[in-house]
Amino acid sequence: DLQICQHGAPTCCTKKMEESYQAAVRRERTQSIQALNFELKYMIVGHITAFQEAFESLLRFAENRTSSLFETAYRPMAKEAAEPVKELFTDISLYILGAETTVESAVLRFFDSLFPLVYSRLINPGITDLSEDYTECLRLTRQDINPFGRYSKNMVTELSKSLWASRMLSQALSLGTEVINTTEHVALTKECSKALVKMQYCPHCQGLTLIRPCVGYCLNVMRGCLASVSELDAQWREYISTLEYLTNEMAASHDLEIALMGIRNSINEAILHAQLNGPQLSATVDKVCGQPKQQEGNLSSDNIVAVKEATETQTFVMAHASLNNKRREFINYMKRSRTFYASIAERLCDGDLVMRDSSTCWNGEDVV
C-alpha cells in the first residue's frame, strides 16, 4: 500500500512511515529556508535599527542646535519656543518612519506656532495680554501676510528633497523584511512533498541510509518545489537596484545631514526677516486682529541679534560619517544578495544533502 516509495525489492517502510517522512521533509525545508534567510534578514533588520539610531542621533543633534539658537539669540521667547521646536523634530522623525504626514505641513505648522511668539516677544515686546483668540488670529494671519518671507518655503524645499530619500529607504527596508518573512513560510504542495520524500527518504526503505541524492536530481526537485519563490528573482534584483539608488540619493545632493543642520540657520534668517519688517507687520496685524494691551516702551535694536553658526562640527562629522559608513556597508552586502532568489535551489542542494565526492548516488529510482 505504499504511495511514494514503490519499489520491486523488499521494503521496510509502511504507509504510516511515508506520512511521517512527508511531515519531516516539510519541517526540514522550512528550517533550511529559514537558515538561508536568517543572514539576509539579520542584515536588513540590523540595518533598519542602525539607520533609525543614526537618524535619531542626527535629529536630536539638530534639535539641540535649534533650541540653542533661541537660548542664545532670542532669550525672551526661548521657553515658549521649546514646544514648537520639539513638535517640528517629532514630525520630521514620524515622516522618515513612514507616517501619513508631509514635510510641508510640519514646517508650516512650526512657523504658525512661531509667529505669535516672534510678534509678541520680539517685534512688540510690550504686549502683555496674549489671549488665546489673539494668538489664534496671529497664527492664521501668518499664512496671509507671510512674515518670514521666502525662508519658510526654502526650508520646506530643502527638507523635502533630503527627507524623501530617507523615508523611502526606511519603507524599503521594512518591505524587504516582509518579503523574506513571507518566503520563509512558503507552503509546499503535495507533489513537492512526495518528490522530496522520494529523493531523501525512499533509499531508507531499501536499507540505504548512507546514500544521498545525485546533485542534478536534487536541483530538479528543488527547482520544481520552489518555482514560486524563484519567480521573485526579477523583482528582488529590481528591489536591490532601488535600494542602491536611494542610498546614493541620500549621500548625494539630497543630503539628510546637511539639511537637518541647516534648520537652525533657516529659522534664524526667517526671524530676522520678520523683525526687519516689524513696522509693516504690526500695521497689518492691528487691522486684522486689533490692538492688544501694551506696556510702555518699544522694541530696542538690541533685540535683533544675528547668530553665528555654532561650531559643534566634531559631533556632527562623527554622526555624518557613521551614517555614511552604515549606508555603504549595507548596500555592498545587499548587492551580493542580488541572486538570492535565483540561486535558492542551488543553495538548498549544497552541503550535506547531496553526494558530491562519491561515484554512487540516488536518482529517485535506484543507486547509480
From TrEMBL:
Gene Ontology CC, one term: plasma membrane
User: In terms of one coarse class, where is the protein primarily found?
Assistant: membrane
Task: Please provide the record's keywords in A-Z order.
Answer: Cell membrane, Glycoprotein, GPI-anchor, Heparan sulfate, Lipoprotein, Membrane, Proteoglycan, Signal
Pfam families xref list: Glypican
Membrane topology reported for the UniProt record: Lipid-anchor; GPI-anchor
The Gene Ontology biological process terms listed for this entry are:
cell migration; positive regulation of canonical Wnt signaling pathway; regulation of protein localization to membrane
Q: Does the keyword Glycoprotein apply?
A: yes
Cellular localisation? Cell membrane
InterPro entries in the record: Glypican, Glypican_CS
**Known function:** Cell surface proteoglycan.
The record's comment on protein family reads:
Belongs to the glypican family.
Indicate what this protein is called per its UniProt record: GPC5 protein
What organism does the UniProt record list as the source?
Haliaeetus albicilla (White-tailed sea-eagle)
Gene that codes for this? Gpc5
